[in-house]
Amino acid sequence: MRADRRQALWARVRPRGGRGDRSPIGMWFWDIDRVLLLLALLLIAIGLLAVAAASPASALRYSGDKTHIQPLYYFWRQVMWVGVSLPVMFVVSMLPVPVARRMALIGGAVFLCLLAAVPLIGVEHNGARRWIGLGISEFQPSEFLKPFFIVSMAWLLSLKAKEADLPVVPITAAMTALVGGLLMMQPDLGQTIIFGVIWLALLMIAGTPLKVMGSLVAAAPVGLIAAYMFYDTARIRIDAFLSRGSDGGAIDHYQTDMAYATLTAGGVTGTGPGGGAMKFRLPEAHTDYIFSVIGEEFGLIACGVIALLFLAIVVRVFVKLLDEPDPFRMLAAAGLATQFGAQALVSMAVNTGIAPSKGMTLPFISYGGSSMIALSVAMGLLLAFTRRNPFLTRSPYIVRWSGQ
To answer: Rounded to two decimals, what is the model's pTM?
Structure first.
């Protein structure tokens, strides 16, 4: 009897913590891409350090005669947002693929409606109406729409494998144009570009014929010229970028000039945490131009490390998808990885003066509740779509149909 009890106890204890652990947490831990999760957590940790470095400059800039903001106000707020976002990331990453897809489709419809409502009920900041107020806080619908839009586009494009006659390219083009039109009304040129780039990347990954892709690429300069001629925001940004370094007349180069000066002020190794002085002259130091603050206080080496972390996320996902048999999972994961890579590239290009100012945050590093939670949802979906159980494919008891 004692031996039977011992064997029963051993049978209950032995799987815990090992590959045979069938609890939800155990299965999640072994199936998740832990390298990808580690890269995301590293970026979040770097982001907290960066916001702590930029917070005093932004607090001083936004303090006035009647309002005094504590030096670390934005840092502690970011800690709160990280505390909210991490559980969201973990919960979303545990969702089965069909549930995650369904959630994304419903979320895409909801936030598309909210995006359409922004011009009517939105809150305006710095001449742009992009946020919806909730009394105690505000959120940006476009940030949440991005991951849901990607998954929705991936689902539509994956249907092509089942029904070759479905007009998925025109349907996705119309949806992307609708989102782009709503974003340009805010105006938000940067997000419009990101949505367009993600759509083109998904079309290419989905195997869209070269003739169609060539036509879309050829239409890009036409769209750029049209935006310059008829869209004031694009014309102002492009004029400011092209005339940088010249007199420029009425064109304001202050933001881009200060960003570049702050980025290079620290040299290779930086001035050290809290030692930056140029950041106090930099607008939006804790959000759009936080990459420049990192360059000043932690050096260009730190900027290079951050760029490599984002590159590692993209490369890790695309390499892992090389043998992915499910078209939907391949497209969804590739699109989400493209979102992180494209948004990071645009943000860093703006800070270095390579691209016009677009008001683009650096994923997981810039301050912002909407951005942090939405990116956590995106990373959770990416972890869910790349989650695998290698023992399912190695088991000798699984019989696969050869198609013959």
So the answer is: 0.85
